[in-house]
């Protein structure tokens, strides 16, 4: 890949260092944790991360949903294809994170916060249960000034695809909109993930600000149902919700909008809408279902991050110039691969 084509995909969200280890009931009790849960860390939990690192066989993974997706896309694409942006602290956790992404071949351009530590997610594995405790810290302190630094904005200008994880709507909406506006102005591809049910539920206005820019929007059935509820749609039908999302008004009328909603082992729903002559009203072009790749139950190791992996495979397909069917298939393939591994690796 020549330098003029380097880093066609730029991703933005909240970097975390995942610290995963097999534990037991005593470890859960020590920190007042449930076996199968996901929470934000309180003061009493902050010793967990060093405990896992020092006293358990911890696996360190470059985490955060969009960073998982970025690693997945880079796994498929040629070297120097993906750059990821977010905020970390100036500490050993950031050093560990940078080493982890380097091993994955992912380029990162972090903003370093001098006051907040790097975000961490402690994962205690007991049997098939996962107890996840997240300390967002520096990840919550990204600033648009970093994005607008000349050396960073140069990467923005060179990229042809922008992927933003919806979690970043809780952090720095101006940075998200800066990428979205650049996509429209230069006829580039803007992709957003709904990320979690609480995004359309509690960050509805921020999400709606980005909607006119979506060329692709990716979510799962729980996130789609949350969107429907928060936006007053009188349906729980996933195809109907996908159609509604596809038909929302769009700024760049020269590109269609494609909505992808995964449903675990059930078929993935894909709806596409566009402007027939680049003007007028947006109309539905196609709605399809795609079967997922089957996987035997004994091969399932960890479903955490399967959605991130799907997005990575799908977006890698887009960047590679694949037709929609093949891009969806790549998403399903990478998700299946992820499920067979510990952590979204």
How would you sum up this structure, described in words?
With 345 residues, this protein is an alpha/beta fold. The chain contains 13 helices and 14 strands. It has a nine-stranded mixed β-sheet with strand order 6-5-1-9-10-11-12-13-14, with helices on both faces. Strands 3-8-7-2-4 form a five-stranded mixed β-sheet. Helix 3 (65-76) crosses helix 12 and helix 12 (306-319) runs antiparallel to helix 13 (324-339). It is globular. The model has no long low-confidence stretch (mean pLDDT 92).
Query: Which sequence of strands runs across the widest sheet?
Result: 6-5-1-9-10-11-12-13-14
The radius of gyration computed from the alpha-carbon positions, rounded to a whole number of angstroms, is 19 Å
* Class of secondary structure makeup: alpha/beta
* SSE pattern, N- to C-terminal: EEHEHEHEHEEEHHEHEHHEHHEEEHH
- Main sheet record: 9 strands, mixed
Globally, the shape reads: globular
- Detail the poorly predicted runs: none
Percent strand? 25-35%
Q: Determine the fraction of residues in helical runs and give it as a percent range.
A: 25-40%
N/C terminus separation: 25 Å
Mean pLDDT: 92
Number of helices: 13
Question: Got a strand count?
Answer: 14
